[in-house]
Amino acid sequence: MSFMHFIILLPFIAALFVPFIYKKWNTSLHTGWFVIIVPLFIFINLLLQIPAISNGETISISLEWIPSLGINFDIYLDGLALMFALIISGIGALVVLYSIFYMAKEREALHNFYIYLLMFMGAMLGLVSSDNVLVLYTLWELTSVSSFLLIAYWYERKRSRSGALKAMIITVFGGLAMLAGLIMLAMITDTYSIREMVANVDLIIESSLFLPAMLLILLGAFTKSAQFPFSIWLPDAMEAPTPVSAYLHSATMVKAGIYLIARMTPIFGGNESWFWLVGGIGVITLIYGSVRAVRQTDLKALLAYSTISQLGLIMSLLGVGSAALYFNIGNAQEIYAFAVFAALFHLFNHSTFKGALFMVVGIIDHETGTRDIRRLGGLMSIMPVTFTIALIGSLSMAGLPPFNGFLSKEMFFTGMLRASEVTVFGLDGFTILFPIIAWVASVFTFIYCMILLVKPFLGKLHREKLPKDNVHEAPFGMLVPPAILGSLVILIFFFPNVLANYILKPALVSVVPNVSMDSKLFEIKAWHGLGTELWMTIGVIIIGLLLFVSIKKWNIVLRVYPEKLSLNQLYNTGIESMEKRSESFTNRYMTGNIRHYLLYIFVFITVIMIGSLIGLEALSFNLSSQEEISVYDIGILVAMVAAAMTTLLTKNRITAIVSLGAVGYLMVMLFVIFRAPDLALTQMVVETVTTVLFLLCFYHLPKLGKRLEKMKFKVTNLIMSIGVGLTVTLMTLIATGHKISVPITDFFENAYELAGAKNIVNAILVDFRGFDTMLEIAVLLIAGLGVYTLIKLRPKGSENDEA
Amino acid sequence: MEYIILLLAGVLFATAIYNLLQKQLLRIIIGTVLLSHGAHLVLLTMGKLKRGQPPILDENVTSYTDPLPQALILTSIVISFGITSLLLVLSYRTAKENNTDNMEEMRGESNE
């Protein structure tokens, strides 16, 4: 195991020690202080990789796991992986620091919290650095599982549990689809390595599995990254503790889907369905999320919808940017690669400002006891630091200077305007929708950013509405992490090219392999002249402000949209009706009536047997070489049929038992005729004992024994029994007519020489095949023990003790 | 001869199934006994019928009936006897505990 593997797996190793540390020092020291070392260590070590990676080098180290199946934990660290790993470990460290002040060590089960969190961190780090698709899938599901555990952290609350369940069902559904897609890719290219898949991209494009694999992988990415219409789990996941929401549901896990799309772009990019699906779904999610966010009253729900919307933004940029793979080289390629560049830039920015905003909301919740914007207001003077950070975060999200959101929003508009010029993927007219929707969504983004900023902080403070009396500024430690993120937001605005050169460009090469890095296009400038993009931004601000001021007048329009048609309602009724239907379906055939179950079995046997006879054209009889029929045979046969029918036709049970005995004795006669003396003897004894047992049993049931009860005639029973009888006769008739090989009977005629016995049947039973007999004795023994226990053993307090 | 016996086996199977589909416990056990009779007949017929003498070695005999199916049937008879007796006692106990031998009435409450 290399040092790099150690770093990636460090969170898992650390998670093992957390409970011991918690047990030993919890009363004196917050467990988080031990945990924070882990992401910090990882972050610093990853920072040391930046010089090498930014020079275009990549790190790939193999670690054997199941080498015989080609499943190895191969680390492949390129620009894209490094960028994600830095975000994961960096924000991870800040979130752990924040959680130290957020989660009280007296009340909370901290060991659980940090184990889940470290598990998630390790899974996420492994996910982005793994080259093997099956390892990627394993860790992908591990993020789903740890997210499930974290959402339901306060498991005594019903809403936490249902939110966790919903997130689990949706993300695992997508994860399984993705697994199928990845396996298809592996089948085409005969390798599990992503790098080798990219190298064999020609094979994949020609394969008939190209489209199914793409759709399945997209399903995985869309569910994980809460894209439309799979976004419904994200708002419900807000029941998790706020550090979790900040970390998982804004900065890292929801970007796993984005990562997957970016990773798969070299394989699928340049294809028109990829362009339209990723770009289109991204744009739809963007507008859906931003419109829904405006009507939320809970701050975390607002942030959840804004996350959905921003993820849609990144997704749409990746979709548009995939056109770069179509042009492959030259100016057109660079123009579209710019969209990917913008996506990566915004991804980074979003992690910074969204993390800060979640922490701000957590502080408000922590200090006032509520997150409802209808009860909050006027916090600016009480919490100046929190307000400053919220200002930075929300203005950056709205896309205003001097914050990094402005830069990426401008680049987003550029990308969308370029998209409208795409003419190669058919449906030319529709590309004009990209910039239009993007602009409208930006207006809504501006509005909800204003709500986020104005409603809690400005206006009047209503102390009587707040659950907590003594509202004051958050403790220093709680403010540090969002302050760091906030200062990053400003720093990136002023020095964007440091980030671009060292992190974004290497990541861009991973997504669009052939792009030339020297191009002037990939330099981020805060002022790029009076272009269309700037006018669009100014438009957003003016219209957004106008709409925000008049929000009470038009807000009613958003509420007209019926809640019944919402995706959530659809999901709930879908699950409910699925449960109801499967229950009623099961109840319909699982009746508890043994007759029905027997009927299913017999129908199945008859249909399968007769069906295969007809289907295989096996209905041929060979009735030659038959033995002569004598009068005795006929007599016995007729008597047997009559006796068997009597068991059915009689009302009297005793008659039925006696005629059953008659059938048995006629069997004895048949055995005599067919030259089987041992059988005849045994059958006679057994039949006698059986009949006696029958009579004994029902003699001792006085209430039931004498009652006459006629059997009810049912046509289905008749048809079924005749059907089974016919099947047996047909099958055996066909089988007797076609003897394929010579019987081994002749061997047993050596009974005297080999076993010293003249009775061949007995020699077979105790010598040639003595093992059967031994076990048959065991069967009898067990049956005898069973009979004994049934008669002797009584449950305590049983009244029927007369046996 | 064989097809007559097999037809008989078919009749035994049919009556057995009809009995099995009844409500009364006794009928069901009668069905299982009939079913095993039918199966034994099929086993016997799948060998050769009536060709030669009983499978007991004798100086003057050259042809014997097939001993192998007979050994198999013998094993089967004993096993089905064991099962039948267990079933009988079981149904006796069941009928006694529940005061009924009607399968319909023995269904769990939840399925009513």
Q: What structural keywords apply?
A:
heterodimer, A: mainly alpha, two-stranded antiparallel ribbon, 36 helices, elongated, B: mainly alpha, Helix Hairpins, 65% helix
Topology:
The complex is a heterodimer of chains A (803) and B (112).
Chain A: H1 3-25, H2 32-35, H3 37-47, H4 50-54, E1 59-61, E2 64-66, E3 71-72, E4 75-77, H5 79-102, H6 110-129, H7 133-151, H8 158-189, H9 194-199, H10 201-206, H11 210-224, H12 233-236, H13 242-251, H14 256-268, H15 272-294, H16 299-321, H17 323-327, H18 331-368, H19 384-398, H20 404-419, H21 433-457, H22 476-494, H23 496-511, H24 532-549, H25 551-560, H26 567-589, H27 594-615, H28 631-649, H29 653-673, H30 677-699, H31 702-705, H32 715-737, H33 745-748, H34 751-755, H35 760-768, H36 770-792
Antiparallel strand pairs in A: 1-4, 2-3
Chain B: H1 2-20, H2 25-46, H3 67-98
Helix pairs in contact in B: 1-2, 2-3
Which topology of chain B does CATH recognise? Helix Hairpins
Main sheet record of chain B: none
- Annotation field: number of helices of chain A: 36
Which overall shape of chain B is indicated by the principal axes computed on the Cα atoms?
Answer: elongated
- Secondary-structure-derived class of chain B: mainly alpha
Give a count of the beta strands of chain A, DSSP E runs of length 2 or more.
4
Distance between the termini of chain A: 71 Å
Fraction in helix of chain A: over 70%
Identify the most extensive interface between protein chains.
A-B, 99 and 86 residues
Class by alpha and beta content of chain A? mainly alpha
Secondary structure: number of strands of chain B: 0
Strand content of chain A: under 5%
The protein's oligomeric status is heterodimer
Strand percentage of chain B = under 5%
Unreliable segments of chain A (pLDDT under 50, ≥5 consecutive)? none
